[in-house]
UniProtKB/TrEMBL annotation:
<dbReference type="InterPro" id="IPR013328">
    <property type="entry name" value="6PGD_dom2"/>
</dbReference>
<feature type="binding site">
    <location>
        <position position="50"/>
    </location>
    <ligand>
        <name>NADPH</name>
    </ligand>
</feature>
<dbReference type="InterPro" id="IPR036291">
    <property type="entry name" value="NAD(P)-bd_dom_sf"/>
</dbReference>
<feature type="active site" description="Proton acceptor">
    <location>
        <position position="193"/>
    </location>
</feature>
<comment type="similarity">
    <text>Belongs to the NAD-dependent glycerol-3-phosphate dehydrogenase family.</text>
</comment>
<feature type="domain" description="Glycerol-3-phosphate dehydrogenase NAD-dependent C-terminal">
    <location>
        <begin position="182"/>
        <end position="322"/>
    </location>
</feature>
<protein>
    <recommendedName>
        <fullName>Glycerol-3-phosphate dehydrogenase [NAD(P)+]</fullName>
        <ecNumber>1.1.1.94</ecNumber>
    </recommendedName>
</protein>
<feature type="binding site">
    <location>
        <position position="258"/>
    </location>
    <ligand>
        <name>sn-glycerol 3-phosphate</name>
    </ligand>
</feature>
<keyword id="KW-0594">Phospholipid biosynthesis</keyword>
<dbReference type="InterPro" id="IPR006109">
    <property type="entry name" value="G3P_DH_NAD-dep_C"/>
</dbReference>
<keyword id="KW-0560">Oxidoreductase</keyword>
<feature type="binding site">
    <location>
        <position position="257"/>
    </location>
    <ligand>
        <name>sn-glycerol 3-phosphate</name>
    </ligand>
</feature>
<keyword id="KW-0963">Cytoplasm</keyword>
<feature type="domain" description="Glycerol-3-phosphate dehydrogenase NAD-dependent N-terminal">
    <location>
        <begin position="4"/>
        <end position="159"/>
    </location>
</feature>
<feature type="binding site">
    <location>
        <position position="12"/>
    </location>
    <ligand>
        <name>NADPH</name>
    </ligand>
</feature>
<feature type="binding site">
    <location>
        <position position="142"/>
    </location>
    <ligand>
        <name>NADPH</name>
    </ligand>
</feature>
<keyword id="KW-1208">Phospholipid metabolism</keyword>
Length: 342
């Protein structure tokens, strides 16, 4: 069944998801802040700023008018950066259908409150209830999705019906959608992998090799899982697409803005210059800050995050950071195998 769907946000990810929806024959509206970009999408069918060189479906209609974009729409997909989520939700509230299914595809925490995106949405949107809220996560670079390259993602929701509706909406021969009831885990895994991607880029920028990268991914996953479980996630989620899957995609790909930012930092560039140069959201920077605070609040050991926090916000030299990680005290690989019960 073809649906009326509105995508909020015409950055790389919103545009790529609108393309998937248009491929599936849905009537897609994409809400865009910039009138020039809306005009470009409607007349030239391109998004030169975020996904240049890709021809978009003529069935994607861009609008700068939030009211007409959202009113009466049964499904709204949010693809804005984490720092914009609360404000966007506030703007949406007057126009949302009382029965709307909300899917968000944002990978980050709200820095000020340390809340997950679904918590922010539930706080701001009175019609948002957990039975009609889903998160889209997993290894999915927008640049590959718009080229219809094989991609797998996960839709997580506390509601079986919302998972199945979201899966039906998005799934096609190039875009395979799995379901997972662990919304908390999918959100946390998707957000925290960006920290490790920054570290992986930094390691490459410093000239370190595959051993260092493998160490970062594996020990990164260990600390992501530790914090995630403390915050209520289910452990198997971290072994799935939203966990290890997205870690691999983000830490090893030049498409990743987080990897690229890390690479430039590893080469000695300043954070402000790097972010200006990127011109797109680098969620891992704010997420490092949020995860550092969450780890302290929850009493969870996150050595890689702590070192990255020092590099990003306290002027620590990246090489010194690596040395600190390598010289940490001796420890069991898996604390639950420690016979002394550490
Ligand atoms: N790109 C990808 O491959 C993937 C991204 N994601 C996640 O999707 C989310 C969005 O990222 P992505 O699309 O890549 O980001 P981009 O940097 O490509 O685009 C950001 C988009 O958000 C808009 N925006 C920025 N600030 C605000 C604001 N304050 N209010 C409203 N809109 C705002 C921008 O509008 P404007 O141009 O007007 O500034 C632009 O449309 C992130 O959480 C990211 O981690 C998840 C999976 C894959
Ligand atoms: O989440 C992503 C791929 O799954 C995109 O990662 P970046 O934001 O680092 O580009």
């Amino acid at each position: 069944m073809k649906k009326n769907v509105t995508v909020i946000g015409a950055g790389s990810w919103g545009t790529a998801l609108a393309s998937v929806l248009a491929d599936n024959g849905h009537h897609v509206t994409i809400w865009v802040r910039d009138p020039k970009l809306a005009d470009q999408i409607n007349t030239k069918h391109v998004n030169e700023k975020y996904l240049p060189d890709v021809e978009l479906s003529t069935h994607i209609v861009a609008s700068t008018d939030l009211e007409s974009a959202v009113t009466g729409k049964p499904i709204v997909l949010l693809a804005v950066p984490s720092h914009a989520m609360r404000q966007i939700c506030r703007q949406l509230v007057p126009f949302l259908d009382p029965e709307v299914l909300l899917i968000h595809a944002t990978k980050g925490f709200e820095l000020e409150s340390l809340k997950r995106m679904s918590e922010v949405i539930m706080e701001e949107v009175p019609v948002a209830i957990s039975s009609r809220l889903a998160v889209l996560s997993g290894p999915s670079h927008a640049e590959e999705v718009v080229l219809r390259q094989p991609t797998t993602v996960v839709i997580a929701s506390e509601s079986g019906e919302s998972m199945l509706r979201s899966q039906d909406l998005l799934m096609n021969a190039n875009f395979r959608v799995y379901t997972n009831p662990d919304l908390v885990g999918a959100e946390i895994a998707g957000a925290l992998k960006n920290i490790i991607a920054l570290g992986a880029g930094m390691s490459d920028g410093l000239g370190y090799g595959d051993n260092a990268k493998a160490a970062l991914l594996t020990r990164g996953l260990a600390e992501i899982s530790r914090l995630g479980m403390k915050l209520g996630a289910m452990p198997p989620t971290f072994a799935g697409l939203a966990g290890v899957g997205d870690l691999i995609a983000t830490c090893t790909s030049k498409h990743s803005r987080n990897w690229r930012a890390g690479y430039l930092l590893g080469q000695g560039k300043e954070l402000d210059d790097v972010l200006e140069h990127m011109g797109m959201v680098v969620e891992g920077v704010r997420t490092t800050n949020a995860a550092f605070a969450l780890a302290r609040r929850e009493g969870v050991d996150m050595p890689i995050t702590t070192v990255l926090y020092g590099i990003l916000f306290e002027g620590k030299d990246p090489r010194q950071g690596v040395e600190e990680l390598m010289r940490r005290g001796k420890t069991f690989e898996m604390s639950y195998l420690d016979p002394n019960g550490a």
